[in-house]
Design goal:
The structure holds 2 protein chains of 2 kinds. By secondary structure, chain A is an alpha/beta fold. Chain A folds into 2 domains: about 5-35 and about 240-430, 3-Layer(aba) Sandwich (Rossmann fold); about 75-235 and about 430-450, Glycogen Phosphorylase B (Rossmann fold, 3-Layer(aba) Sandwich), CATH 3.40.50. Chain A contains 17 helices and 12 strands. Chain A has a 6-stranded parallel β-sheet with strand order 2-1-3-4-5-6, with helices on one face. In chain A, strands 9-8-7-10-11-12 form a 6-stranded parallel β-sheet, sandwiched between helices. In chain A, helix 5 (about 90-105) packs across helix 17. Chain B folds into 2 domains: about 25-30 and about 145-235, no CATH class; about 35-145, no CATH class. Chain B has 11 helices and 2 strands; from the N terminus they run βαααααβαααααα. Chain B is α+β, with helices and mostly antiparallel strands. Classes of the chains: A alpha/beta, B alpha+beta.
C-alpha cells in the first residue's frame, strides 16, 4: 500500500505537496476550528446568473452536439409548445424549465410557459396527492377530488391551449387534458415524481386523465406505470454552466476551504445534502469514523434545511450527537443560494458520498460525477442509473459497505481517478441540460411524425 | 474482406492520396430516445419470457445502443443483460456468457435475440433453481426510437475522410461503425465498406473491421481508425 501522503498528492484536487502529514489522524488546527464557528459570510441570495445560450455549451459537449440539436429543431421550426406547471420559482421543475424554455426558443421552437393558479386548499390537496403518489398513506375524500377538479377547471378556462404541443408537468395540472380539442394537437404528461409505489386511490383517480395523453415521460424506468400510451425515459439533468456546476478557479476553492477550516492537504470526504433521514447523515458519520481508523481523512457534511424545517433541525441535532467533539468532522448548514460554495466544496473533495436510503434521482450524485469525483452512493432510487458499480462509482447498501469503499478508494487513487473520469463521461453522455434539450426535440419530432415506431 | 459482397470500383493503382472515390462519404449520426416498454423482469424466468416477447428495439437498446451510452468504458461493460445478471441476480457465469455476445457477429436483431434467449435457456436448464430466485433489482426493458441526422462532414477524398473522423461526434462513429451492420446486413461497417468499395483500400478496410470495440472506448476507436487511414495515406 502506498503511504497516505503519496495517495493524497496523486489526487488531482489535493495540491499542497509541501505539507508533511503522517498517516495517523492529523487533528484540525485550533485556528481552523475557531474559523468554523464564525458566522457565515453568505447571508443574502446573490443576483441570478445570466441566462445561458446554446453556443455556451459548445466548449463542453462539442460543436457537433450543438449542430445535431439545430438539425433536430429544424423540422419543429414554427411549431408552438406550451409548458404548464404549478410554480414559477423554487423546486426542481421550475429550475429546469427556466433553463429549458429559453434554449428551445433559441432553437426557434416557440415555447411558452404557463403556471397554474390555485388557492391554499388546492395546493394542500396537491401536496397530499404528491406524497400519496410517492407511497404515503392517504384517504382520498370526495371533497379533495372536488377541490382538485374545480381548480383544474378554473385553469382550463383561464389558459388558452392553442399550441401544437401541450406539456403538463406533474399531477397538479393533470386534469387540464380536458381542454384537449379534436385536432392534431399532441399532449404530453411529464411526471417528475416517483410513481413506483403509488397510493392506489390517488393513482386510480388520476390515471384516467393520464391515459388521455399522447405520451408520458418518467425520470426512471421504475417510476413508470402500465399505461396504454407510450412512456419515455427522460433522466433529470444538471446544467454544467450553472453556479453549482461551472468550472471555478482553484483560488476560490481554496478560499472556501479556508473559510470553513478545511485542510486541503488531507483527504476530504464530503456529503452534500439536506439534513434529512433519507440521506442517512448519521450513517455517513459512522462510516467515516470506521474508515478513519485506517486512513487519515476529514468529513465535510454540507447541507441545509435545518433552520426552516423542524425535522431538519432534529436530524442536525442527531448528527451533532453522532459527531461529538470530533475535530475532523465539519458540519455546514448552508442556505440554498450557496451554490458556488457547494461547487467549491465538491471540487475540493477527494471522495464524495451520497449514502441515501431513499432517493428520487439524486442530482447531488450527478453533480459529484460531473466534477470527476470518485463517488460512493446508496443503491436506491435513480442512483443506480448513474453509478454503475466499480465502473462509474461505488454502490453501497450499508454503513460498513460505505466505510469499506471510503478506505478502498482513498488507498487506491488510480482506481478512484478512473471511476471519477468514467463518471464525468457518463454525465456528459446522459445527464446534461443539452441532452435534455435533445430528448425534447426528439420526442416532439416523433410525436409529430405519428408516435413511437 | 471476406464478408463484403460488393467489389471495389476504384483502381488500386492510383495513390490513395489522390484517389477520387466513386462516391463521397456522408457522415451521418443518429439520435435515440428511450421508450419504456411493458416488459420487466424480477427473476431470470421472467427475464427469459421478456427476452422472447420484447420489441426488437429493446434488444437493440440493451446491446448495440448501450455500448454507445457507455462508450467511455474500456473494460467490464458489454451489454445491459450481462450487467443485470451479475449485479442484480449474482450469476457471474450467466453474466460472462451474455457479456461474450459480440454484437458485430449479428446482422439482424432477430438473430441477436435468439442468441441471448439460447444462453438464458441453457443456463436455466443447468441451474433450474435460479429461475425463480428474486433479483435485487427489476430489469426494465426499454427501446430506442431513432432519428438519423446528417452532419456537416463529407469526404471526397481519403484526406477529407480522416478530417471528418477527427471532427465527428462519437455518436456518429457508433452509427457508422457499430449500428451499420444492421442496415448493411453485412459483417462490416460503413467506413470499411466505403474504403473498400469506393476507395479500393482493401487492407485498410479489413484493418478497420478488426478493431475491438469491447476493449476500447469509442474515442480509442476513433484514434485507431485515424491511424489506419493515415497509414493508408502514406
Amino acid at each position: 500500500m502506498e503511504p497516505i501522503e503519496q495517495q493524497v498528492h496523486s489526487e488531482s484536487t489535493v495540491t499542497d505537496a509541501s505539507s508533511d502529514h503522517s498517516a495517523a489522524s492529523t487533528p484540525a488546527t485550533r485556528e481552523g476550528l475557531e474559523r468554523r464557528r464564525k458566522p457565515r459570510t453568505w447571508e443574502t441570495p446573490p443576483a441570478p446568473a445570466p441566462p445561458t445560450h446554446l453556443d455556451d455549451y459548445k466548449s463542453i459537449v462539442g460543436e457537433g452536439e450543438i449542430d445535431e440539436l439545430k438539425f433536430l429543431a429544424r423540422e419543429l421550426k414554427g411549431k408552438k409548445v406550451k409548458m404548464v406547471n404549478s410554480t414559477a420559482v423554487g423546486g426542481g421543475v421550475a429550475e429546469m424549465l427556466n433553463q429549458l424554455v429559453p434554449l428551445l426558443r433559441e432553437l426557434e421552437v416557440q415555447t411558452h410557459w404557463d403556471v397554474i393558479t390555485g388557492g391554499n386548499d388546492f395546493f394542500e390537496v396537491t401536496k397530499a396527492f404528491h406524497n400519496a403518489l410517492q407511497g404515503s398513506d392517504y384517504n382520498l375524500t370526495q371533497h379533495a377530488r372536488d377541490i382538485f377538479l374545480m381548480h383544474n377547471e378554473q385553469n382550463r378556462n383561464r389558459i388558452e391551449f392553442s399550441e401544437d404541443f401541450i406539456v403538463i408537468h406533474d399531477p397538479q395540472p393533470a386534469a387540464l387534458i380536458r381542454a384537449r380539442k379534436e385536432s392534431n394537437q399532441r399532449w404530453i404528461w411529464r411526471c417528475h415524481i416517483d410513481l413506483s409505489n403509488p397510493n392506489p386511490e390517488v393513482w386510480g383517480f388520476l390515471r384516467p386523465f393520464v391515459e388521455k395523453y399522447d405520451a408520458a415521460i418518467f425520470s426512471s424506468q421504475s417510476f413508470a406505470r402500465q399505461l396504454p400510451i407510450p412512456q419515455y425515459l427522460f433522466y433529470p439533468c444538471i446544467d454544467p454552466l450553472s453556479e453549482k456546476n461551472k468550472d471555478i478557479e482553484d483560488s476560490f476553492v481554496q478560499h472556501v476551504c479556508d473559510e470553513f477550516g478545511i485542510d486541503r492537504s488531507r483527504p476530504i470526504v464530503t456529503q452534500v445534502s439536506r439534513f434529512d433521514r433519507a440521506k442517512d447523515p448519521v450513517g455517513v458519520v459512522q462510516a467515516f469514523k470506521q474508515a478513519r481508523k485506517y486512513v487519515d481523512c476529514q468529513l465535510v457534511m454540507a447541507g441545509g434545511g435545518a433552520s426552516d424545517d423542524p425535522e431538519g433541525a432534529a436530524v442536525l441535532k442527531e448528527v451533532k450527537e453522532a459527531v461529538g467533539e470530533d475535530p475532523d468532522i465539519i458540519l455546514l448548514d448552508l442556505p440554498p443560494w450557496c451554490a458556488l460554495e457547494i461547487n467549491a466544496l465538491q471540487r475540493a473533495s477527494t471522495i464524495i458520498v451520497q449514502k441515501s436510503i431513499r432517493e428520487g434521482f439524486g442530482l447531488t450524485v450527478t453533480e459529484a460525477l460531473w466534477k470527476g469525483k470518485p463517488t460512493i452512493a446508496g443503491a436506491v432510487g435513480g442512483i443506480p442509473n448513474q453509478i454503475i458499480h466499480k465502473l462509474t462509482g461505488a454502490l453501497v447498501h450499508s454503513v460498513d459497505g460505505c466505510a469499506y469503499q471510503i478506505r478502498y478508494l482513498l488507498t487506491h487513487p488510480d482506481f478512484a481517478r478512473q471511476l471519477g473520469q468514467n463518471g464525468h463521461e457518463h454525465v456528459k453522455e446522459n445527464f446534461l441540460m443539452s441532452t435534455n434539450v435533445r430528448r425534447w426535440l426528439l420526442l416532439l419530432r416523433i410525436l409529430l411524425a405519428g408516435g413511437a415506431q | 474482406m471476406t464478408t463484403a459482397t460488393a467489389t471495389a470500383t476504384v483502381s488500386p493503382l492510383t495513390s490513395p492520396l489522390t484517389r477520387t472515390p466513386a462516391k463521397p462519404f456522408y457522415f451521418n449520426t443518429s439520435a435515440h430516445l428511450l421508450r419504456i416498454t411493458r416488459q420487466k423482469a424480477s427473476t431470470l424466468s421472467e427475464f427469459l419470457d421478456a427476452l422472447r416477447e420484447c420489441p426488437e428495439g429493446s434488444i437493440f437498446q440493451h446491446s448495440f445502443r448501450t455500448l454507445q451510452e457507455h462508450h467511455f468504458i474500456r473494460e467490464g461493460f458489454s451489454n445491459d443483460f450481462a450487467h443485470w445478471a451479475v449485479s442484480a441476480c449474482n450469476e457471474p457465469s450467466l453474466a460472462e456468457e451474455l457479456a461474450s455476445v459480440d454484437v458485430r457477429e449479428f446482422t439482424s436483431v432477430a438473430q441477436l435475440r435468439e442468441r441471448f434467449v439460447q444462453i438464458v435457456e441453457d443456463f436455466l436448464k443447468r441451474s433450474p433453481a435460479a429461475a425463480t430466485r428474486a433479483a435485487k433489482e427489476t430489469f426494465y426493458f426499454c427501446a430506442s426510437d431513432t432519428v438519423v441526422i446528417p452532419t456537416s462532414f463529407v469526404a471526397h477524398s481519403l484526406r477529407e475522410f480522416a478530417e471528418g473522423m477527427r471532427g465527428v461526434t462519437v455518436h456518429c462513429i457508433h452509427h457508422h461503425f457499430i449500428e451499420a451492420r444492421l442496415r448493411l446486413k453485412l459483417m462490416s461497417n460503413d467506413f470499411s465498406q466505403w474504403l473498400y468499395e469506393d476507395m479500393g483500400l482493401t487492407e485498410a478496410a479489413r484493418q478497420l473491421n478488426r478493431i475491438d470495440i469491447y476493449t476500447m472506448t469509442l474515442e480509442d476507436v476513433r484514434n485507431q481508425i485515424i491511424k489506419i487511414v493515415e497509414r493508408a495515406l502514406i
